[in-house]
Amino acid sequence: MENNTETFIGKQLVSNLFNDKGVFVLPAMTLLSAEHIRLIGQHKIVLEPHDVIKLDSAAFFQIAVDDCTAAMEGIFEQIKYNKTKRVPMIELRNEVIPFIHQVTEKGDFYGILSALQTKDDYTYRHNVAVGILSTLLGKWLKLKPEDLSMLTIAATLHDIGKIMVPAEILTKPGPLTDKEFQVMKKHTTYGYEMIRDTVGTNHMQALVALQHHERMDGSGYPFGVLGNRITDFSKIVAVTDIFHAMTSDRYYRQAAPLYEVLLQMEEDVYGKLDPYICRVFINKLMQSMIGNEAELSDGRTGRIVLIQSNDPLRPLVNIGEEFIDLSKERSLGITRVLPL
To answer: Whose CA is closest to 250, among 181, 162, 178, 171?
Structure first.
């Protein structure tokens, strides 16, 4: 098989890889990226199918997200020590973007969400998470392939300006002071300038870094613009940015339960988030919960069997022989959804 194809990307090496002179090239268990394939080709090694294994989805998600997170950390470090502050697009396109596309192709939302739960690397993992979730949302919104590719890069780079924010502010284990928050807000303009000045990006991608904290009612930052002046890409990233931030453990608070996050986001549809984009996101996430157990506000537990398209957060729930339509039983609600 030819090494210049993507046949082996996303698969794992079975054993250590050496070239024909006995020089060590890659360790066993490496999840192969486009850059690894290029390196293997340079060493004139021809991979065979028995040299790799295909991982099950959960293992692939975890390794892919961990590898992407490590690559994002490397990209951040590279920019930090680069006087021009340009984004290394080759590394991003080789080490991160292919895996984001592979993860989103599998469409297993809970598997993806589990892999995205932050460890002690929120700053880097969050960029990968927003890249993955925005790509999923872009697919649900039926974006054209070329627009989806642009969105993936824009979303993955949305917080790149945080490189310029002091670490003690980024990792502060409590609320920021007004002065610290003013510094934090500057990551949007820093990111815009860095992406704008990087060859291989476009203005739409730079605007995502600038606008992902803007809100439809003008209550966002850095400029407080109204929704008609916010790009669609920025509106998409605003939704996924909020979702991942709220469902992740942070330095100063624990993650909120998934269902509470969706309830809060539904409230934010009226003013802060784009109503159509946010509803598509909520609807698709709730669709992915069909079959899950849900705990109701009266303490009973039942299985979600049907999502109402006009009221997705109030599904049809089966408890024993009974079916409860929460869109009609308004006194009842779901307090939390239990993973399968």
So the answer is: 171
Give domain status of residue 6, yes or no. Answer: no
Helices (H), 31-163: 34-42, 57-80, 89-95, 97-106, 109-116, 122-140, 145-156
Residue-wise pLDDT tens digits, 142-180: 999 999 999 999 999 999 999 999 999 988 888 899 999
Query: Is residue 114 in some structural domain?
Result: yes
Please indicate, yes or no, whether the overall pTM of this predicted structure exceeds 0.85: yes
Kindly state whether residues 75 and 176 are assigned to the same domain.
yes
Residue 308 CB: number of other CB atoms within 10 A?
A: 16
Range of the domain at 63: 57-285
Mean pLDDT computed over every residue of the chain: 90
Q: Report which DSSP code applies to 117.
A: S
Are 63 and 121 in a shared domain?
yes
Residue 333 within a domain = yes
Enumerate long-range contacts of 145-154, CB under 8 Å, 24 or more apart: 150/202, 150/204, 150/205, 150/233, 151/233, 151/236, 151/237, 152/97, 152/100, 152/101, 153/92, 153/93, 153/97, 153/201, 153/205, 154/195, 154/204, 154/205, 154/208, 154/209, 154/233, 154/237
Are 316 and 328 in contact, with CB atoms under 8 Å apart? Answer: no
Token pair 């608070």: residue: 253
pLDDT digits over 259-282, tens only?
Answer: 889 889 998 887 899 999 999 999
How far apart are alpha carbons 326 and 282 in whole angstroms? 16
How many domains would you assign to the chain? 3
Has residue 74 been placed in a domain?
yes
d(CA 12, CA 40): 14
